[in-house]
Amino acid sequence: MSQRSPLPAPALRIVDLIAQRKLSAVFQPIVDFEAGAILGYEGLIRGPAGTALETPYALFAQAAAEGSVIALERAAACTCIEAFAQLACEGKLFLNFSAGGIRQLADDRDGTFVMLRDLGVDAERIVIELTEQSAIPDVASFLPAISVLRTAGAQFALDDYGTANASMNLWVRLKPDMVKLDRFFIHDIASDPLKFEAVKAMQHFAAASGARLVAEGIENEADLIVVRDMGITCGQGYFFGKPLAQPPRAVPDAAREALRAGHIAVFPEATRTVSASPSGGMASAKMVVHAPALPREATNNDVLELFNRLPNLHAVAVVEHDVPIALINRRAFMDRYALPYHRELFGKRPCMLFANASPVVIEKSMTVEDMAKLLASDDQRYLADGFVITDEGKYVGLGTGESLVRAVTEVRIEAARYANPLTFLPGNIPISSHITRLLGHDAGFCACYVDLNHFKPFNDQYGYWQGDEVLKFAAHVLAQVCDPTRDFLGHVGGDDFLILFQSDDWHERAQRAIQLFNDGAQRFYAPGDRLAGGIHGEDRRGNPTFFGFVTMAIGCVHVLPQTGDAMYSSEDIASVAALAKRRAKSEPFGLVLVEFEESQALLQGRTSAALID
């Protein structure tokens, strides 16, 4: 007889696990940041240890296959409630349910709340979380179930907001008491500007709707402090504790210290390039000249009449079905018409005779980067003729070469206020905003103004391209010595940088920056200049002068938490730091600290000085 393969062991069924009470509960703490205490626990279910159904994912996948998801949800909730009552944990208990599970829970509200009462858990301590697994096709019919639970005293929360079926639509219509932000948005938020902006938008809506946010997935101090400083008041994650059968009763020391940390978070800045600053549409709107156009059938006499009627009009567009097909420059046309007999010969002829049939056309939505490329292109007809501005191909108006240059320049200047286009470091507006945050939170810090000695002679000698490389090297060195979670680095402009240190060892960091830069900057010089120790040039008065290597100078001022009536602004702080920088430039080691007492006198106007060279 041939041997037969052994039959597979029968698979565990969810109904059997429920009947045999083989489900167990674990709890993960949810922390109230303001109180520095545990607000409650999320109850989570586990299957038999060591089996294929130990994890919640496997349990619910099997339940879905068996058609017993709601039964499993209810059994999980009962298991969690019983274990929670036996542990005598304080705070709220968060329980997960699908929309169908919530409907059934509401239908059997009497039995549910009798069980709660028998176990000694008040309904007011229960938070029902709507999970994201299933959509709700008819939200209106779902609202009564939420109302029943709220009437009994339970609270309602949206779970894993930002993924799957957890949508803005549900937030608006269900008006949850709490919204739990999915861990995707919280993990690494300290270094991800897009996640930061997304959560900030959710926070604004939460403030408007009255919902309390819970940040899920907090796993380190940096993310916690960013979330804390954004104003989110609750969090959950491994930094506070993993799901355990015996959960912690107090916030861990590391998390408590982070919540009480005196420094504020450095929010991740989304780099604003020219194309990310005010849009091309805004730039086009600034330079558009709303001018009448002429049809293809118009004559040269019509053009002459229009120019005589509108003496400031530099050109006229020729259109067909609102689409520009040509451009007639005023000066070229009038010069031609001034020639003898030209009006008699050509006045009744079609205007296309003297028109430029391939004008420069700028679409209203064109990015500023593309406009800048136009400025640098070989086709410079726009300087004399101007150009046509369209909106989805339809004629809108005219522009001049001067207005194009001005619009691109203004947008670039505005962009540089947010981020320096060379180093991509935050510009003046983010710098001022961070100083204001520091002052508003009474956070002590050290403002350090950084400048490069002999940079202008170097730039004159080697050219702006090599000068830009030195500036990028300086930015790299400064970023290298900063703690990105505590220290804010900005680029004021040119060779001026500002660091707002919250690191306790800021002095050593500043010294290291000076040493690293001074040692590395010499590689930007030609070998002969390196041997000579610098370059020959002229000072500001035109006198021949020898300039040593480019070096770094840092002027620092301690800013202590404000007390009494002393109120300082970001401009005050920058001004005092700039004074310290001037002193540092004359020091052999390039590092100067202005004591707080002196800076306080300056800020209150008791000392006058020229602050910025």
TrEMBL record:
Short name of any one Pfam family annotated for the protein: GGDEF
Record domain GGDEF: where: 443-599
Ranges annotated as spanning the membrane: none
EAL domain location: 7-257
UniProt cross-references to Gene3D superfamilies, sorted A to Z: 3.30.70.270, EAL domain (3.20.20.450)
InterPro entries xref list: CBS_dom_sf (IPR046342), Cyclic-di-GMP_PDE-like (IPR050706), EAL_dom (IPR001633), EAL_sf (IPR035919), GGDEF_dom (IPR000160), Nucleotide_cyclase (IPR029787), Rev_trsase/Diguanyl_cyclase (IPR043128)
Annotated protein name in UniProt: Phosphodiesterase
Native species: Paraburkholderia bengalensis
